[in-house]
Amino acid sequence: MTVKNLVKGTAVIAMIATISHFKSEIAHAASDTAQALQIVQAAIGITQVSDLDFGTAVQGDAAKTVAPGAADNAENASFDVTGEPGLAYTITLPSNGTIVMTTGTGASANEQIAVDSFVSSPAAGANGLLDGTGNQLLLVGATRAALLATQVPGSYSDTFTVDVVY
Amino acid sequence: MKLLKFFLIILSISLASEKIMAAPISITQISNLDFGTGLLGDPQKRIQPGNSDNFENASFLITGDPGRTFSITLPNNIQMRHLSTTSRIRVNRFRSRPRNGRIRNNGERLLLIGATRATLANSLTPGKYAGTFTVTVIY
User: Fold this and answer.
1) Which chain A residues have a beta carbon less than 8 Å from that of B138?
2) CB contact (8 A) between residue A34 and residue B26
3) How far lies B22's CA from each of A23, A135, B64, B72, B119, in Å?
4) CA angle (B90, B94, B100) in 5-degree steps
5) In a domain? residue B1
6) Are A150 and A97 in contact (CB under 8 A)?
7) Residue A14 placed within a domain
8) A133 touches chain B (CB under 8 A)
9) Which of A57, A72, A139, B55 has the fewest other C-beta atoms within 10 Å?
C-alpha cells in the first residue's frame, strides 16, 4: 500500500467517523403517554307536577296544614327530580315569611294569606336520593295562616321555589 | 506524511468526540390529566400546567444530560371517549411548563401539562371518559 492510498483510506475513515459523530448529535427523542380523564354526570333537574292547594275556606277559618304526604295528592305540591342515578342531593324550601298569597292588589292585610313552615318528603337538607333510574318524587307541604274575619273573598295565590342541588 | 498526520488528527478528534456523546433523553409519565367530575351542560374547563404535580395536571419526569436544553411536542387536540358508547369530548390547547426546558443539574426535569376540555354538551352520555395523548421531548 502506498502512502497516497493510506492517506486516502484514512481520510475516508475520518469522514465516516465524523459523519457518524454528527449523526449521533442530531437528536435524542423520547415519548410517553398519559390519559385525559373525565367523569360526566347528568345534571340535576326539577319539574313541577302539581301545586300546593289549600282548597276552599271561609273567613275566620283556622290555620291549615298540608302535609307533604307519601304520594302526590289533591293538596300537596309535587316535583319530579331527575339526574344521575344513585346520587344524593340537597333540597332547599322557602323560608318563613317569604311566601304570601294575595288577591286583588294584595296591598292590605285582608288581601294577604301567609304560607309558612314548608316541609318536604324527602326532608329539606341533604336528604334527596335519586333512584336507579335517576328519579325521585319530591312532595311539599306547608301551613296556611288563619283567615281573618275580614278576609277578602277571592282566589289567593303566590309562587314558591324549591331548589335542588347535588 | 504531513497529510497523513492531518487526517490521523481528524480521525482521533472524531473518535474522541464519541466519548462526549449526549446521554439519551427519556420521559416517564407520572400522573394523568384529570378533569374530574362534571355535569352535562358544564362550560369548558381549563387545567393549567401549574407549578407542581397536582390532582388535575399531567406530569412527566424527563431525564438526560444535565444542563441540556430540550424541546417539547404536545398534541393539538385529542378526544376523550366514553368507555362504552361513541360519545366523545374534545380536549385541546395543550400547554406545558416549562414550554421548552433545560435538564437540571441532577439530570432531571419535571414536565407539567395542562389543557382545555370542551363544554359538556347535553347530548353526551353520562359516564367515564378517557383519551390517550403523547408527549415527545427532543434534544
Assistant:
1) 27-30
2) no
3) 12, 62, 8, 18, 44
4) 165
5) no
6) no
7) no
8) no
9) B55
Number of domains into which chain A is organized: 1
Contacts of B8 in chain A (CB under 8 A): 10
Residue located via cell numbers 354526570: A41
CATH number at B94 reads 2.60.40
Contacts of A43 in chain B (CB under 8 A): 39-41, 122
> Each residue of A67-80: pLDDT tens digit?
999 999 999 999 99
CA distance B77 to chain A (A): 11
Query: Among residues A108, A115, A126, A131, which one has the least CA distance to residue A165?
Result: A126
**CB-nearest partner of B124 from A18, A40, A166:** A40
Give the total number of structural domains in chain B. 1
Does B78 map to a domain?
A: yes
Per-residue cell: B5: 498526520
- Sequence-distant (6+) residues with CB within 8 A of B39 are A40, A41, A42, A43, A44, A166, B120
Q: State the residue range of the domain holding B123.
A: 22-138
- Measured between CB atoms, which of B91, B125, B137 is closest to A29? B137
**Amino acid (1-letter code) at residue B20:** I
Query: What is the ipTM, given to two decimal places?
Result: 0.84
- Summarize pLDDT for A110-146 with one digit per residue, the tens: 999 999 999 999 999 999 999 999 999 999 999 999 9
Tell me if A149 is assigned to some domain: yes
- A32 to B131: CB separation less than 8 angstroms, yes or no: no
Angstrom distance (rounded) from CA A56 to CA A157: 12
Flag whether B102 is in a domain: yes
